[in-house]
Amino acid sequence: MAQKVQFVETVLRDANQSLIATRLPFEKFEPMLETIDKAGFYAAECWGGATFDVCLRYLNEDPWERLRKIRAKMPNTKLQMLLRGQNVLGYSHYPDDFVKLFVAKAVENGIDVIRIFDALNDVNNLKVAMEATVKAGAIASGTISYTTSPVHTHANYVKMVKELKEMGASTICIKDMAGIMGPQEAYDMVSAIKDAVDLPIDLHTHSTTGLAFMTYLKAVEAGVDIIDTAISPFSGGTSQPATETLAYALRQLGYQVDLNDDCLNAMADYFKGVRDEFVADGTLMAKSMATDTQCLTYQVPGGMLSNLLSQLKQMNALDRFDEALAETPKVRKDMGYPPLVTPTSQMVGVQAVRNVLDGERYKTVSKEIKAYCRGEYGTTPAPIDADIQAKILGDDKVLEGRYADTLAPVVEDTRAKLGDLAKSDEDVLSYIAFPNLAEKYLENRKAKEENACTYSIVEA
Ligand code: CO
């Protein structure tokens, strides 16, 4: 029997986030939800990551309501979200009571699969979210943030995968956020993990460097079960490779692909129009769609290169770009080789720029790097350089154990503080995640309701 390959469609989340900064409002994709639902995807990634933040910050949407509306139109397909472990959808660790309630409510509102990752691959940062996911009856997808370094060996990845299985992972995801995984590496890594555990494996990569099609093909040869792709108008560049192209090529090679081509064609036709609107208003830029091989040369993700450039530009120091670029891998090494993903990529990039512009390494450090050196982000893949750590910390002590254990519960107090501004646990969670944004949203909603109320009285 032919080997079956399943697909996760990312147009609603990762493709949306990678190409147009997550600016797709609900009503722009609503007409396609029933079609996506009938296309035969393993799952539709549609929530989490930056969607929550952007819904509140730019789109004036309640992210929970968005999820419920997607669920209502997609009864047949698993809905997937991306969760940053103990960081949930933010940039630093939250107390456990928030993580648990957030996961429970995400599942209650319609999520089926939670892909849970940690920027340092510290499984202690995944545990609470993984257990809450299992408890809520959803699929916990234990995730490896893929990177390369002397300590990121297959043996270490396999060890992590076994720990994820112990914690209740139903599937394993290899998340190559920078698109730097080559075909041979994909073949070897998928083979190594397949040998170690009997769980379905999902490979997630980006087209950034142009490797993705080849990488998926070799991963499939090694037996990968699920791949992440985006419908063609939202594919390529910093997004995923195209769904239709992979379906075509894999079928030609004799693999079983249970996708409905009529649905894929309808999606492609529709999203072409949406893409063109974002091109016209300048949101979708040519450089996001292009192939960029710089990250293969510098081992720095594409997003970090543009951040370095804009930082230096702000400081009128564009002529120091080469130095800052050369400093980046050195800072990463000093910090114990963290994978470069939110929030570590920002922290390392900012520090590299400071080291170069100050003329002395670690003369000034951000509060995030200081917290990192204290252990607030978890255990680093390799030890932090001891001398540098001592210089940064001064008299400060390194934390023993898990940082979240030092955080007081936050849900009850917030609920009390918000009073009748919050109508539900979901409102309380939005507020804890993004206090300023959520407060504005909740107050607007309240004002609207009061106006609506006055209006109806006048009418009566
Ligand atoms: Co991604």
Describe this protein's structure.
This protein is α/β, with parallel strands linked by helices and 460 residues long. It has 22 helices and eight strands. The chain has an eight-stranded parallel barrel with strand order 1-2-3-4-5-6-7-8, surrounded by five helices. α6 packs parallel to α7. It is globular, with a radius of gyration of 22 Å. The structure holds cobalt (II) ion. Cobalt (II) ion binds next to loops.
Summarize the topology:
Elements: E1 6-9, H1 14-20, H2 26-29, H3 33-38, E2 43-48, H4 51-57, H5 63-73, E3 78-83, H6 96-108, E4 113-116, H7 127-135, E5 139-145, H8 154-166, E6 171-175, H9 183-196, E7 201-204, H10 212-221, E8 226-229, H11 243-252, H12 261-280, H13 286-289, H14 294-298, H15 302-314, H16 321-334, H17 344-358, H18 367-374, H19 386-393, H20 411-418, H21 425-433, H22 435-459
The structure holds cobalt (II) ion.
Residues 14, 177, 204, 206 line the site of cobalt (II) ion (CO).
Summarize, please.
The protein is of the alpha/beta class and 460 residues long. It is 51% helix and 9% strand.
Defining key terms:
9% strand, globular, binds cobalt (II) ion, 460 residues, eight-stranded parallel barrel
The structural class is alpha/beta
Which radius of gyration do the C-alpha atoms yield?
A: 22 Å
Tell me about the largest β-sheet.
Answer: 8 strands, parallel, barrel
Distinct small molecules bound, one entry per kind? cobalt (II) ion
